[in-house]
Amino acid sequence: MALQIIESCVNCYACEPLCPSKAIFMSSKAGHFRINPNKCTECEGDYQDTQCASICPIEGAILDANGIAVNPPGSLTGIPPERMAEVMAELQAH
Amino acid sequence: MELPVLNETPAASAGGCSSHSCGSSDDQLGHLSDEIRAKVENHPCYSEDAHHYFARMHVAVAPACNIQCHYCNRKYDCSNESRPGVVSELLTPEQAVKKTMAVAANIPQMTVLGIAGPGDPLANPERTFETFRRLSQDAPDIKLCVSTNGLALPESVEELSKHNIDHVTITINCVDPEIGAQIYPWIFWENKRIKGVKGAKILIEQQQKGLEMLTARGILVKVNSVMIPGVNDKHLAEVSKIVKAKGAFLHNVMPLIAEAEHGTFYGVMGQRGPTQDELMDLQDACSGDMNMMRHCRQCRADAVGLLGEDRGDEFTMDKIEAMEIDYQSAMEKRKVIHEAIAEEMHSKRAAKVEKAASHADEPKLNTRPVLMAIATSGQGVINQHFGHAKEFLIYEASPDGVRFMSHRKTDLYCSGDDTCGDGESVLQRTIRALEGCEVVLCSKIGYEPWDMLEQAGIQPNGEHAMEPIEDAVMAVYKEMAAAGKLDEVSADKRATA
């Protein structure tokens, strides 16, 4: 039972001080914050919501134990994923 | 004591500009103590006058944020752009102190150090306050500022007041949670992500409480608002009224910046920013109750130098590491330079008042107002080649006098036009940015832009090079009136215009 931060992390530091298990660390090897799976408790016993995933501004950067994004595309920004895809395609066409 | 701030107008127009509230009348500033007035005088962001002479810098020590705004994208790091939230290099508090002292020694006009993100400074209290603690000890001649979304403000006021922080900017875009929900998709509050109206309501409550706590302690508060057409544009005059009643000293209504390539909600969803006219109208609508800031450049969270210029490239961490700084001697040098600048500002101001008094005897014109664009690199004079201007200052001339209205960037926030432009030439973009202006005053101008400006209905003028801006604008206005280029309007109509 552990969450995971992946490479789309933008190193905003918001999650690190919130972690009740001190499981979050800056990985110089990866170049972004990571979660020590041996320490992560998914905040159980401390908070109702997982703290890192509740402040993270980047959709898809935090995965649950099953590898599924806790904040899927569109959930934080409110931008519908299909609209984002459309706009990105348009920008790349220029 | 006369307060030298904010779009000060000559005495001759006193009473004539009540519909615009274009200056800092004694009444508007009556609630400020002499101590607070003194805090404003050399602050480039608080004083329109000072920003031509004094510089500021931001240190990017605060990457975390506790809310999401629809005009912000936390992934953003384009080096071509100058707008809030964009940074090239994140600093530790120790690096930030070193950088501040290096900049202060090399740019002695630098008076103010601000922390403005890229996230929210008060969502990074350890990093922010560590920086302030060290600086107030090691560089006591630098004013400290902080800019916040306000969510964590009430709990930070006590600590802020300990560090001799003269100024706080709160971004307040609304006082209505329903409108707030259209701007802030979520906040992080008491260990939960709270979405929608509920989150916006908490944010608004904390902002208002923080504002009241700060003004109660005599800390100067500026309120920033982002004008979002169709969302809060009709609402901001109300915001202005409320924050003024609570003691905010200055209101800065800024245009929304939203382009698809920024990847923000507003950019991707096609929300437009306000036109220059809409922005100016709203600033005028707010100014009946409030001192308005019109010279904001919406700078980066790591900006360095005078407003409108960025010298950040000279002070990257690797360059700073190589610098030897003797701050004690730098501080002595800074003191001498600051005093000389203050003296120059005071004498220019006195000359302006005197000149205005002599104009008061002249017969008053009865003509419509005209917008003019000025190419200047500072010091209040027309001293820039048209083609070199990256921004223009916009002034309005009318029978009541000359007033500063705004600045307009020619590169529209992005200089990387090969990759993200829309194929318009720089000149075409510049002309578009000058829409609504009838005259451009510059030190020199080439034939090609001259022709294109004339075709666009804007008269170029290089005859007033090196002259003080206000004098030149009034001189050109009078020439236009004498040449019959300005329709006469009745005084009633002008008052309601």
Automatic annotation (TrEMBL), chain A:
<dbReference type="InterPro" id="IPR017900">
    <property type="entry name" value="4Fe4S_Fe_S_CS"/>
</dbReference>
<keyword id="KW-0479">Metal-binding</keyword>
<keyword id="KW-0411">Iron-sulfur</keyword>
<dbReference type="GO" id="GO:0051536">
    <property type="term" value="F:iron-sulfur cluster binding"/>
</dbReference>
<keyword id="KW-0408">Iron</keyword>
<feature type="domain" description="4Fe-4S ferredoxin-type">
    <location>
        <begin position="1"/>
        <end position="29"/>
    </location>
</feature>
<dbReference type="GO" id="GO:0046872">
    <property type="term" value="F:metal ion binding"/>
</dbReference>
<feature type="domain" description="4Fe-4S ferredoxin-type">
    <location>
        <begin position="31"/>
        <end position="68"/>
    </location>
</feature>
<dbReference type="Pfam" id="PF12838">
    <property type="entry name" value="Fer4_7"/>
</dbReference>
<protein>
    <submittedName>
        <fullName>Ferredoxin</fullName>
    </submittedName>
</protein>
<dbReference type="InterPro" id="IPR017896">
    <property type="entry name" value="4Fe4S_Fe-S-bd"/>
</dbReference>
